[in-house]
Design a protein that fits this description.
Layout: E1 3-7, H1 9-18, H2 25-34, E2 39-43, H3 53-62, E3 67-71, H4 75-84, E4 88-91, H5 111-123, E5 127-132, H6 136-144, E6 149-153, H7 155-158, H8 163-182, E7 186-190, H9 198-202, E8 207-212, H10 214-223, H11 225-236
Parallel strand pairs: 1-2, 1-8, 2-3, 3-4, 4-5, 5-6, 6-7, 7-8
Helix pairs in contact: 2-3, 2-11, 10-11
Bound molecules: pyridoxine-5'-phosphate (PXP).
């Protein structure tokens, strides 16, 4: 059964809407852990649209499970990560105008920069995961760059417009998981997963962790964060 990592970025999105202190992402992380989250994910974006530098300092101190810092390969962010030292860094692509992380990191096209970022983070004692599309070439490039962990972007499956497309993207993902496992990589997955589509993904053999944010925070508006996380844990198991 995959572990559940809860992404709390959108608690900070709501806070930034008014620029005050509420809602507090650190308290959200605490509640998520109480409800069974096995790690907490936060993305310090270069444009600081939700999570702020102070949040990751506090999260590093307060998280009792594991802190997975999502980040771009920009040297400024690597420097911050190396001083905060989260349990894990997940390298993602970042575009200023995107609403969310729209695709996986193109490791092959940014090979030298990714390889250097992995080296730097590992030297600081941080485990590194690469967020990539479920694609053989990306898996090979990730491994060549020194990654031992990858996270597959599940967005194409989650956003598929019809059952045929959904099946196609599900199979792509399943084959990519098998391939990556055969190469000896630890495999996680996430993006766009929700209460309706998560069970099928959770049943793919070899996925160790699912990282989920938006759907949980949305559900929390109706039922509270504790109940929303608990329900997601139940669905995964
Ligand atoms: N994993 C990674 C690497 C991500 O970038 C995101 C989005 O921030 C997620 C998981 C969670 O995606 P969602 O918010 O759609 O559940």
């Amino acid at each position: 059964m995959p572990r559940l990592g809860v992404n709390i970025d959108h608690v900070a999105t709501l806070r930034q809407a008014r620029g005050g202190n509420l809602p507090d992402p650190v308290y959200a992380a605490f509640l998520a852990e109480q409800a069974g989250a096995q790690s907490i994910v936060a993305h310090l974006r270069e444009d600081r649209r939700h999570i702020q530098d102070q949040d990751i300092k506090l999260l590093r101190k307060k998280i009792k499970t594991k802190f997975n810092l999502e980040m771009s390969i920009a040297p400024e962010i690597s420097k911050i990560a190396c001083s905060i030292k989260p349990y894990q860094a997940t390298l993602v692509p970042e575009k200023r105008k995107e609403l969310t992380t729209e695709g996986g990191l193109n490791v092959a096209a940014n090979f030298k920069i990714v390889e250097a970022a992995i080296k730097k983070l590992k030297a600081a004692g941080i485990r590194v995961s690469l967020f990539i599309d479920p694609d053989k070439d990306q898996v090979n490039a990730a491994q060549k760059a020194g990654a031992k962990i990858i996270e597959f972007h599940t967005g194409r499956y989650a956003l598929a417009k019809n059952p045929r497309q959904k099946e196609k993207f599900f199979n792509q993902l399943k084959h990519a998981v098998d391939y990556a496992r055969a190469q000896g990589l630890a495999v996680n997955a996430g993006h766009g997963l929700d209460y309706a589509n998560v069970r099928r993904i959770a049943q793919i053999q070899g996925i160790e962790e699912l990282n989920i944010g938006y759907s949980i925070i949305c559900k929390a508006l109706y039922v509270g964060l504790f109940a929303a996380v608990k329900e997601m844990r139940n669905l995964i198991s």
